[in-house]
């Protein structure tokens, strides 16, 4: 059996519960992929985006409706070794990638403040433009369950705001484009286990800035949150799941204020209209 077929089989069979089942659940529960969609699957070279590509391939093969998928790699300025690694992994996984070039790394390395933030914004812009060029209506990214939890805590701890990473979003600047995250329910540990089982090695961080510098502030904050969650799970193994469910179980009767489309609403606005016994 060819290597890529063994890898595909591992997703459907060995990691059916941890990966395939959660992928399908997210796609169906959040209505991420629909009939006749044209999806640009973004591959950065890491484990998450490559697994995303394989799962979408399998969903297309075994799914009950037709949709198109384009597998795209944006080269922001990878060195030759990292670029070749991406190409080789794509061959090994039997993913037909298209690579297009950008000059993001060259620009970001000249910036002193928040280079990771600028890089992320520029990447998003290039990807949206490429999706429009391909005639796609959706962009698929490889964010997973741990990214969702970490982002939620980052918003609370450093942004003084309770919000989470959504499974899908409409683009604000590119009409008709939607961003989807089909890996939304898949845990990072299971992605790592899948990669190790199949003896696959992927890019970690290929950024030229972090090769030469200490961690960016945003990156160090995320690392702190990641380590904090590990410590909390030692006390309560379900803490990450509980944080996730909390964003799907918000009790508006016990929230000081909410914000929607830039408009703030205090609990005081309807307080006198409510007949609530808080002592119960």
Structural commentary:
By secondary structure, this protein is an alpha/beta fold. It has one domain (about 5-210): 3-Layer(aba) Sandwich (Rossmann fold), CATH 3.40.50. About 50% of the residues lie in helices and about 10% in strands. It is built from twelve helices and eight strands. It has a six-stranded mixed sheet with strand order 3-2-1-4-6-5, sandwiched between helices. The protein has a two-stranded antiparallel sheet with strand order 7-8. α7 (about 145-160) packs across α10 (about 215-235) and α7 (about 145-160) packs across α11 (about 240-245). The chain is globular. The termini are far apart.
Give the biggest beta sheet: 6 strands, mixed
Overall residue-averaged pLDDT value: 90
The ordered string of helix (H) and strand (E) elements is: HHEHEHEHHEHEEHHHHEEH
Question: Which CATH C-level class is it?
Answer: Alpha Beta
Here the CATH topology equals: Rossmann fold
Apparent shape: globular
Summarize the structure.
With 280 residues, the chain is of the alpha/beta class. It is built from twelve helices and eight strands.
């Amino acid at each position: 059996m060819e290597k890529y077929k063994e890898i595909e089989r591992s997703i459907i069979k060995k990691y059916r519960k941890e990966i395939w089942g959660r992928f399908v659940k997210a796609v169906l529960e959040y209505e991420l992929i629909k009939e006749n969609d044209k999806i640009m699957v973004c591959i950065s070279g890491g484990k998450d985006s490559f697994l995303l590509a394989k799962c979408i391939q399998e969903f297309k093969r075994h799914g009950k409706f037709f949709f198109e998928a384009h597998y795209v790699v944006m080269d922001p300025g990878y060195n030759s070794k990292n670029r070749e690694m991406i190409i080789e992994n794509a061959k090994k996984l039997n993913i037909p990638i298209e690579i297009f070039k950008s000059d993001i790394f060259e620009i970001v390395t000249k910036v002193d403040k928040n280079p990771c933030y600028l890089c992320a914004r520029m990447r998003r812009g290039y990807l949206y433009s490429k999706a429009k060029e391909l005639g796609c209506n959706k962009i698929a990214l490889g964010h997973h369950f741990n990214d969702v939890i970490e982002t939620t805590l980052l918003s609370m701890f450093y942004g003084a705001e309770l919000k989470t990473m959504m499974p899908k979003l409409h683009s604000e600047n590119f009409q008709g484009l939607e961003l989807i995250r089909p890996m939304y329910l898949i845990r990072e540990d299971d992605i790592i286990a899948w990669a190790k089982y199949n003896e696959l090695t992927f890019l970690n961080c290929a950024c030229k800035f972090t090769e030469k510098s200490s961690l960016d502030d945003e990156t160090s904050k995320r690392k702190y949150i990641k380590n904090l969650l590990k410590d909390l799970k030692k006390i309560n193994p379900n803490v990450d799941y509980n944080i996730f469910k909390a964003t799907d179980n918000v009790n508006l009767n016990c929230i000081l204020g909410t914000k929607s489309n830039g408009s703030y609403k205090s609990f005081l606005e309807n307080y006198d209209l409510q007949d609530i016994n808080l002592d119960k």
